[in-house]
Each structure stands twice: as C-alpha cells, then as structure tokens.
Specification:
Blueprint: H1 6-17, H2 21-34, H3 41-51, E1 77-86, E2 90-94, E3 97-108, E4 111-118, E5 133-144, E6 147-152, E7 157-160, E8 175-176, E9 189-198, E10 202-206, E11 215-217, E12 220-223, E13 227-229, E14 232-242, E15 247-252, H4 254-261, H5 265-270, H6 279-285, E16 289-299, E17 304-314, H7 318-377, H8 379-397, H9 404-425, H10 429-449
Length: 450
C-alpha cells in the first residue's frame, strides 16, 4: 500500500481544491468525529480528498520519478541519481541460507534516498564510486523507521553511468559539524571526536528472517511476521565522545558495533555471556579518534540530544583530515579576503571623495589668491576697484530727495480722499438702517444655502 505523509496529502488537497488550511483541518476533524475514531487522521484526509475529487497519486506514476516523489509501497520504481555515499557489503545468515546486502545513497535535485542492493545485486556496489550517475529500474520502495528506501532484488537493474544520462549538480556528501553545532534536525552529518567512555553492549533476540524483535511467549520466541522462530541476536552499544567543544552520547546498533569493535557477528554473540571478555576491547577503544556519520535524535526520556550512528571509522586517515582542514581554512580565508576587498573598496571610495573635495577647495582658494595678486601687481586697477566700491556705498547711503512738484502732487491727491471720508460720516440714519437690513437678508441667504 502506498503511504503519503499527512502533510503532503494536505498540501495536494489545498492546491487542487483551492481551500485554506483552516477549512481543510475543520473538514478532517468533522470526518474523525463522524467516524468515531475508526480512521486515522491520514485516513480522514484520504476520504476528504476523494470527496473533493482530488487524485493524490496521479503525479507519481508517470515514468522516471524524482526522489521527492518516491512513496513507500511503490513497485517498478525507476529513477536516476548521483551517488552521494557508499557503504560496505554486509553478509548475514538466516534459516534459508546466507545472504548479502549493500547500501548507498543516491541524490538528485529534489533530495536523497537510501538504496539497498540484495544478494546478487550487492556486488554491483563495487563498480561505483561517489559522484557516479546511476539508473535504477524495476525496484520497489518501503518504509524503514519513517524513512522511504529503494530496494533492488534479482529482477531489478542497477546501471552505472548509463548512456544518455548527463551528470547533475546536487548537494552530495556529508556535512562535518562540531558537537556544539549539532541540532535536533540534523540528518546525514559527520562528527570527529575522541572516545572517552564505553558501555557494555546490550543483547536482545531478533527474528533471523526479518530482523524484527522476537519476544518470548510460553517458552518459545515469536516474531510478529514469522510466528515461532529460533532467534538470532541483535545488540546496541553506547559510548561518549568529546571533540573539545562538547561531549555527546553516541548510539551504535549491530553493524556499527561490528565496525567500531572490529569483530564479526559470531564473535560478538560469543561474548554475550562473558562480559569480562569485553573489558580488553573497551580498554583498546578508549582515547582513540573516531569519525562517525549519522543523525541526531532527541532522547525524550532524559531530555538530551544523542547521535545515532550509521557508519563508524576508527583512526581516520590523518592526511585526509589535514587536507579537509586546509580546504576549510582556504574557504574561510577566501571569504575573509572577499569581505576585506569590499571594505577596502569602500574606504578607497571615501578617500577619493575627500581628495576630490580638498582639490575643489584648493582650486577655489587658489582662484581667490590669484585675483588678489592681480590687484597688487596692477595698482591702477586696484585703485579703480576701490573707488568704484566706495562710490557704490555712498550711493546706497545717500537719501533720495523729492522735487517740489512731487510734493504738491501728493497734497492735491490727499484732499479728495479726506473729503470722501467726511461725506461718508454725514450719512443719514436711514442709510444705516437699510444697510443693516441688507446684512440680515444676506445672513438669511447664507443660512438657506447651508
């Protein structure tokens, strides 16, 4: 059965049905109430999608898939990706016989996905290297602890650098972080630290067919998928590492325990009932430098951040680590150099503006000095200039005299104006009353207009 995360279901419904997140959430809650808890939230969302005529899976069955569109439960999966990581081939034993599995990580423009090659396909992992392009056909997908994986069986194909497939630019590889830089959301990260404490491994029974936990019932061990089984053993080991910035608990499961201890599965199972045999192994590991790839996990019970390993490398190559540090240092210096160049350019621009202003001021001062020098050199011209300036000042200060004709004219014009004022004062009382009536009428008119 295909499995689509609830968040993706809701996004598809909102895009195709044109409804808001609040409206969709309300519809889902109403459906949950109507069915009295008989379906999950994802199931209710599927029902809503069907009622609204939204097809959730039509985009994912059209030829080659992008990694982001691979869903758990698909068959005949075809995709192309660049090899981002390669892991060692691992052998295992079951009641049916011996088997092999190899894993790698493929990436494209949309994401990354783990690919598992079983039995006859496992040897093909030796033909690839990181950065190669790979085409996968006739594979199937499944869910593994909440993550989708691609699996290849004997009927699948795994082609390295196929014809007609061009290399793509993707973010490949692992991000190296210091312990104090890790967050709860970190996936596919790498740490380099020193082992400072080791705990004894814990053993538990598992199904030899599927690897799931087998529990004892009435004297026999039962697997949820294969019923009564003769159990094999899985194991988990914890250790503490420190890189100078912080210390952190690291969780190692079966494969990673084998990698870190350099022991086979049979050797480790043989130590299960002999804890004293493990003391020498712990002593050998303490103080050694280890490179671990994996992801972070929040341990809710103890409210702490832990690191879950998927690959362990003891005593990594010093020359490779030095080369990586040199590359990081050059990158930092390059970034610092670019920033310094920008600052120097800005400072140079400011200096140029200052010099330009000083040059203009200098030219203006030089022009003034030149004019003064010309007056000193030619005393006649200087004398003329001083005389002209003095004359202008006298003209401005000297009062303007009016002629007798102008004075007489002003007197004659003033007489009629005075007479008009006197005539106005002689108005009759009736005229004042009429004027008041006119003002009243005007006020009435204005009030009407208002």
């Amino acid at each position: 059965m295909l499995k689509l995360p609830l968040a993706d279901i809701k996004v598809k419904i909102q895009e195709k049905a044109g409804i808001s997140d609040e409206e969709l959430t309300s519809k889902i809650n109403e459906k949950l109430d109507a069915l009295s808890g008989l379906v999950s939230e994802e199931g209710a969302a599927h029902i809503i999608a069907n009622e609204l005529g939204v097809k959730l899976f039509e985009e994912t069955f059209s030829g080659k898939l992008q990694i982001k569109n691979v869903l758990a439960g698909m068959r005949n999966v075809e995709l192309v990706g660049k090899v981002a990581q390669i892991y060692d081939v691992r052998e295992f034993q079951t009641e049916r016989g011996q088997g092999k599995i190899a894993t790698c990580v493929l990436a494209d423009e949309t994401g990354q996905i783990r690919v598992a090659l079983w039995n006859s396909q496992a040897e093909k992992i030796n033909e690839v290297k990181e950065g190669d392009m790979v085409k996968v056909k006739s594979a199937y997908s499944k869910d593994n602890n909440g993550k989708v994986e691609i699996h290849l069986n004997d009927n699948s194909t795994f082609v390295v650098n196929p014809d007609g497939v061009e290399s793509i630019q993707v973010q490949t590889g692992i991000t190296r972080k210091k312990l104090n830089e890790l967050t709860e959301q970190d996936q596919d990260v790498e740490i380099l630290a020193t082992i400072v404490q080791i705990f004894d491994p814990k053993f538990f029974e598992v199904c030899p067919e599927c690897g799931k936990r087998a529990r004892e019932k009435e004297g026999v061990f039962v697997c949820p998928a294969h019923n009564s089984v003769r159990p094999d053993y899985g194991y988990v080991m914890n250790l503490f590492v420190d890189d100078g910035t912080h210390n952190l608990r690291v969780v190692l499961w079966r494969n990673q325990v084998q990698q870190s201890l350099g022991k086979s599965h049979e050797e480790l199972v043989g130590m299960k009932d002999n804890p004293a045999a493990f003391e020498g192994v712990k002593t050998d590991l303490l103080g050694r430098i280890v490179k671990i790839q994996g992801r972070t996990n929040k341990n809710e019970a103890f409210d702490r951040l832990e690191f879950v390993a998927n690959r362990v490398v003891l005593d990594p190559d010093p020359s490779a680590e030095i080369a990586k540090l040199d590359a990081e240092l050059k990158s930092v210096k390059s970034a610092d150099g670019e920033e310094k160049a920008v600052v120097e350019k800005e400072e140079l621009s400011v200096k140029e503006k200052v010099v330009e202003k000083e040059t203009i001021a200098s030219k203006e001062a030089a022009s003034t000095d030149s004019k003064e020098e010309e007056l000193v050199v030619n005393p006649v011209e200087k004398s003329k200039a001083e005389a002209a300036t003095s004359l202008k000042e006298e003209v401005v200060k000297e009062p303007v005299l009016e002629s007798a004709a102008d004075i007489a004219k002003e007197k004659n014009e003033a007489v009629p104006e005075a007479e008009a004022v006197l005539e106005k004062d002689k108005k009759k009382p009736e005229d004042d009353l009429a004027l008041d009536e006119e003002l009243v009428n005007l006020d009435d008119l204005e009030s009407v207009n208002d």
